[in-house]
Amino acid sequence: MSRGSAVRRTLLLGVLLPLALASCSSSGAAPAPAAGSTSPRGPVAAVCDHVPPGPAAAPAGAVPVDPAVVDDLPTKTKNSPAGTTFWLAPGTHRLSDDEYAQVQPKDGDVYLGAPGAVFDGRKKNRYAFAGPAKDVRLASFTVQGFTAPRDEGVVNHDSAPGWVIQHLTVQDNDGAGLMAGPKQQILDSCLRRNGQYGLNAYSGSAAVTGLVLRGTEVTGNNTANWEAKVPECGCTGGMKFWAVDGADVVGNWIHDNRGTGLWADTNNNDFLIEGNLIENNDSAAIIYETSYNAVIRNNTFRRNNLPDGRAHADRGDPFPSATIYLSESGGEPRLKARTSNLEISGNLLQDNWNGVILWENADRFCNSPANTSSGSCTKLVPNVSTCSAPGIAKKPLYGDCRWKTQRVVVQHNQFTLNSKALGCEEVCGRTGVLSNFGSYPDWSPYQGAVIQQAITFQQDNSWHDNAYAGPWTFVAKEMSNIIGIGEWQSAPYRQDANSSYKPNGG
Predict the structure, then answer these.
(1) Average pLDDT estimate for 63-91
(2) pLDDT band (50, 70, 90) for residue 206
(3) Which residues are bridge partners to 178 per DSSP?
(4) N or C: which end of the chain has fewer CB within 10 A?
(5) Which residues belong to any copy of the Carbohydrate-binding/sugar hydrolysis domain (predicted)?
(6) Domain co-membership, 28 together with 62
């Protein structure tokens, strides 16, 4: 769902080495990554112009596919047994003019491209590869020019399981370049200039599990600018995840997308977001919304959220539009995951518009009209209608009907900001924890300052051992309460113990 609605109504890196950050005190030096840090400073996956080529000749036993023959790829796929390897010869491969012409792989099929192999929809065909086949592999060619509608995808259109996407370029398509299915791997690939998303991870029938995105460049997506077409649709950016249970997003370069870089929305769980360089995205670098249990560590965030943050400020919107934005999301020990917290640690945030914001809309809960994820309930209460009066006012529903921003730990991060260079002065250096004053529906048990009090003082949200360089301020409890480091570290908030603060940089 859109953040606006939630506010108003709500190169492959290989094995990563651990990051050790020196602790700091309020008068000590900023923590610095130890030797071997995996927090990237330069492009970690500059893949799009350097995709390794595929085999120059057909491998033994492979079926060659002729680019001069229209529909050669789907025809040979249909006439071959499951588990066949197909070799796309150099040149541009085409389908017929039928908009629904597509390749329907069989279980275990492999598609390898020769150097210069392109599969082009010519803005005539909707989908490239579709159907339920499992364990399909696509490697070393370009997929472009397909016209999937909004919220649909070009490659793995039906979110089939076990697909491996490697050394693939998926570019200049409408809709999403890729859909993701269970146990899908996206490795060393290029997802660029697609109309809506580079990647859309969604399956209507069951949760997507065990997803891996590694060593991939995700850039320039949402060329159709869907947020302008459908205001507050929450349907734009580099990638979007819905109801994914278990995802590793490691060592990617996510940059220059129109909208959010990485957006996990509604009942996602167990994410590892590590060792990525996320920069120059128009909106937040990461939104983790109505979701659970994640580790966000050892990433570098640069110059994210500048257009969106500036637009918020220009229209007088007081909400602190964030670079890492947690909306009704936190740790939940009752769900199986690699952590029972939501950990933000060891990251470098440099010259972004605002920092980490923890938000929980008092009026947004399962079965509330303010829930922009309409029809969805928490993972703890699957039946939406259960969350109604009078039962919701008592345990366990009182707690379980809410997506809670709880058990969030923000530690050992570096926040640096040159606000004068960005031209934002005092409005782009905010981080904090807050909620709104609960007001509706009239049967809500969360009215008044109940949730403001809970997210700020009662839900185990903690900052410590961070380093701030630049004119940072802190938002506590509610959006008009903007305070300095002294108040933030003192009672009643008592946040950022052992953290350093250098308002003039350093």
Answers:
(1) 98
(2) confident
(3) 155, 199
(4) C
(5) 159-313
(6) no
